[in-house]
Write a structure and sequence with these properties.
single chain; mainly alpha; 10 helices; elongated
Length: about 375
């Protein structure tokens, strides 16, 4: 049988070529099916992602709409609460001022009377009005701690501030062209301090030494006024620290705030209930709506993939059977080397151009050509 085959003419090779081409065609079709399967799976993945994105977008949008609806109500409630609280605080502050004024009215009136009596006393003795001032008593009849502070501050101004100013003016204005700037500055500062000292002694002689008894009475007035002011501050501090607001008649504000707080709790609960219903029911309805509208195309593509896979399985079986048949029918005779389209085409060319008349001659010529 082998010898008969090798003695075959070119028609035998045509048959081999045809069978090889049939297998190659099957392989090309299989590759095309695989490419179609790959593209379909990509399309399925893309469509599923698009569906999921649409679902997420719709859910997020609906959820935000629900939250915004309730958040708007909550914000409006909080704004009303803030306004009521502001009115309450304003009313409390006003009534607290009225309470302070009422509870310190006697002390305030007493201080007014004391100031009038002190003013009348000083006028009767023809004492200058500045002698009633806090600065005068701090400089000439120092007693209280605040007056000590004023005295020290005044000394600092007189013995440091004013000399410094006079020195600067002397150097940069008065004597800037003079060669004896240092001496002139020293004299100017010394003269200024001398004048200030002289002024102090003058006022001392004209006021304290002359009207000492009256000034002592004025001190008594001022001490009483200061004591009353301390008592008034104590009353004011006590009122401000008092946590009991019932005395200010703020009940209508408290009732309104309590009502708004209950309303806020109700809105918050309704929001929570709505979000629970959305998560447990509405969300699934939205998902089903999108799936019902778009999953048909996905299912169709998946069905197409299943059909392709069935066809590829059948085609792979056909290719395997055809390949086995080629190996059995031609490979064992021609050898695996010559069971390719390229080699068979070369053998056919050798026979067609007259180089060989039989298959065996074509194989020999092919090998002899060193191919």
């Amino acid at each position: 049988m082998h010898e008969n085959v090798f003695d075959e003419n070119v028609d035998y090779l045509y048959q081999v070529q045809e069978d090889l081409e049939a297998v190659e065609q099957l392989k090309k079709e299989l590759a095309e099916y695989k490419n179609q399967e790959k593209n379909l799976k990509k399309a399925i993945a893309s469509e599923e992602k698009s569906i999921q994105d649409e679902i997420n977008q719709i859910i997020r949008k609906r959820k935000n709409e629900i939250e915004k609806t309730y958040d708007a109500q909550i914000d409006a409630n909080k704004n009303r609460s803030r306004n009521v609280q502001m009115k309450r605080d304003k009313t409390k502050s006003k009534r607290m001022v009225e309470r302070v004024s009422m509870e310190t009215s006697e002390l305030a009136e007493e201080n007014r009377q004391l100031r009038m009596e002190m003013k009348t006393l000083f006028k009767a003795q023809h004492i200058p009005s500045f002698c009633r001032s806090k600065l005068f008593y701090a400089l000439f009849m120092t007693k209280r701690l605040s007056e000590v502070f004023i005295l020290l501050l005044s000394i600092a101004v007189i013995y440091v501030g004013i000399p410094a100013i006079m020195y600067i003016l002397s150097v940069h204005v008065f004597y800037k062209e003079s060669k004896n700037v240092a001496l002139l500055c020293t004299l100017t500062v010394s003269f200024t301090l001398f004048l200030l000292g002289l002024l102090y002694v003058f006022i001392l002689n004209k006021t304290k030494l002359r009207f000492y008894d009256v000034l002592v009475q004025g001190r008594a007035y001022k001490d009483k006024i200061a004591a009353n002011e301390r008592q008034m501050r104590a009353i004011k501090n006590k009122i401000h620290k008092d946590k009991d607001d019932s005395v200010y008649g703020l009940g209508k504000f408290d009732d309104k705030l309590s009502e708004l707080e209950d309303e806020l709790s109700q809105i918050s609960q309704e929001k929570q209930d709505s979000m629970t219903v959305f998560e447990n029911e509405t969300k699934q309805v939205l998902i089903n709506e999108v799936n019902d509208r778009r999953m048909g195309r996905v299912e169709q593509m998946k069905a197409d993939v299943d059909r392709l896979e069935e066809n590829m399985a059948a085609m792979e079986a056909n290719i395997q059977n055809a390949s086995v048949a080629l190996a059995n029918n031609y490979g064992a005779i021609l050898g695996k080397e010559f069971c390719t389209l390229t080699k068979v085409a070369d053998l056919i060319s050798l026979m067609e151009d007259g180089t060989a008349d039989t298959v065996s001659e074509a194989i020999a010529a092919y090998k002899g050509a060193g191919k």
